Amino acid sequence: MDKTAIKIGTVTWTHLTNPTIKEISDLAKQYDLHELVEEDLMELNTQDKIDIYDDHIAVVLHFPKMNLGSNSYQLNEFNIILGKDYIISVTRFHTNHINTLRKEFVDELHQYQKDDEHYKITPYFMLYEIINTMYDKLNRMLSKITKESIQIEEDIFQHRYTSQVISDLLIKRRNLSFIKHNFVSQKWVLEELADTLPAFFEEELEVYFDDLISKQGKIVHTIDDQTDNINSLADTYNSLMSIRMNDTILLLTVVTIILGTMTLVAGLYGMNVALPYDNHPYAFTGILIFLVVFACVQYFFLNRMINGRRRAK
Fold first, then answer.
1. Going along the chain, which residue ranges are E strands?
2. Does the pTM of the predicted model rise above 0.85?
């Protein structure tokens, strides 16, 4: 038996991560998989789907995988194939949650202290647990985004304007859009599974996939809420930055007016013509005092006018 395969009760679970072409071909021969399933395993799929064959069902789902280097999500493709007594899972990237789930099944089996044949488990239940585990992971990811959004909101309203704030907002907006785009289509796959699996396994399975459809809907709703929140924070940040920029421009305008007056007086007394008090011993001191006093008067009236307009608004 391949080292990636484990036997849980009467079901064999084979898991591969980023397999080679030879490993896929050997797997297809071992389980007599349809050639289209083999092609799907060899190629990158960008859409969720379900294909039904005589003796097995092939499901393709996509879940986000964090790329720590770019702080963004990338597609982790899940190919899951169900037979009567086996399940095959193939992922593009390593997934700790799948390894943990496999270990939990084995540990639960050992607790029975009976022969493996008496441990009742089915491939469709294992499929349910795989999807449910990934949905739980996605909920934790969204919860983390929520907490980070709260921190960003505090930074914005405490006037900690840094380039990192807007960078975090843009990254989260992109990540949420990426998750929703690649996740919303899973609803029809789950509905198709709910309709197909009972006939394939001749059992009532509605309770399992109704639960998954409900979880999927809640996750999409959470993504929409988070997207609205991030967009609102981005609009708030832009508004506050616009106000801050207007205040800066206003300050520069006041300084320009004051310095303009000083420049005018300095320019007049710099002309090579006779001017009042040009030979007076205290002319420079007097002009300097006049400019300082006039600048203060200008600042007082300009500041009063600006505050009056702000109060009027």
1. 5-8, 11-17, 49-52, 57-67, 72-82, 86-91
2. no
